[in-house]
Records
---
Amino acid sequence: MNIENTQSQMRKGILEFCILSIIRRGEAYPSDIVDEMRGCNLQILEGTLYPLLTRLKNSDMLTYRWVESNSGPPRKYFSLTPKGEEFYKELEATWNELANAVNSLTSKKESLVSTAGSVSFGSDSSNIPTNTSTTDKLDEQ
């Protein structure tokens, strides 16, 4: 299994949510989105960003406006539409649910195997029956 491929797939899964998170704070110019993502150690190429922005715009999640530039062609600044805001809220809820589940699973220190052999009845630990293995029973005979 290729770790780089798995890492790439994980990043792609959160890319749209991260981009919408940036745009949600206010109008955003694509190269500023790239810079902010890179500043957070999320590498993205403009060749990946522009098609995603276009797809989100075509789905009525984003709108844009042209702003004249002093140093070149006009710039396209993106912002969320009301539909995009609702979509973002759904993604945010999903992200929070997934992040909590993953954090819960990855922070557990106890093995399932180590706890599977004991059974407890109430708070009196002196009468706790434990499962014994077949080998232990054979040794007793």
---
Amino acid sequence: MSTQYPSTLHTTLVALSRQPISTKLVFDLKDCASQFGVTLHSTSGQVSNGAYHQERWLIPQSLETEQRELLRSIASNHQTDLCFLRSEVIPSEIRVLAMDMDSTLINIECIDEIADFTGKKSAVAEITEATMRGEIKDFKESLRRRVALLEGIHADALEAVYRERLRPNPGAVELLAGAHQRGLYTLLVSGGFTFFTEKLRQQLGFKQTQANTLEIIDGKLTGKVLGDIVDGIAKAAHLDQACLALGCSKSHSMTMGDGANDLIMMNGSGISVAYKAKPVVKEKADAAFDHVGLDAALLLIS
């Protein structure tokens, strides 16, 4: 997750796309890199697994955040995503997949959709967006403010959101199936709610899920959260504990998220993936996915 790699180490640049990677993109990437004194050395020709196309280059020096973002911008013009893999990361040694739920694994922010049942979606969504952008620093306070707006909503709204609005993001099912096939320990860590993480655990087979519990009395939400709130620090702690139990370090994990509260969890992981993420997350992540699906991450550990 660091924005600059040690100069003694190289970086592997990986381009991922749903379409064949064009020679124009390759030319543009090499031309851009040359402007800040970097040469891209091809390590293999373009390969495809049927769903995605990828091409790799070796960069024998470090890159600044601004340089990586410039290369990503060029790739994005060709509907292609980039990943910058550090040389010390050994893909075959990744043992844990830890990911966020709302807007990463799934297509919605559940709390915003629940609020829609009482006409307060815009008010809640405004706080959610500011929090994910990193403008509201205290996630716990942000969550309490939003949950308070849910007071009085019938608990049936949770099931309705799950059944009618919640969908796994493209590639989610394939990602989990592939991770389990590779023997990875899968962890869903969410600042959202256990009602949804439990259903997704059953649906997708996560080995462990952690989230917040909404208080429900007489069939209605009270506007309160029970117990300790799962915030960014807690997400990172759950990942650390999972790695400890497996006898590995955080560097043996792959993490995925989209908002500022995912950064602590993502920092220090072997491979960090920002999925359709806020700029503050993209610029710090090893990979930024805006065009490929979640399952393209499997190519990074193959």
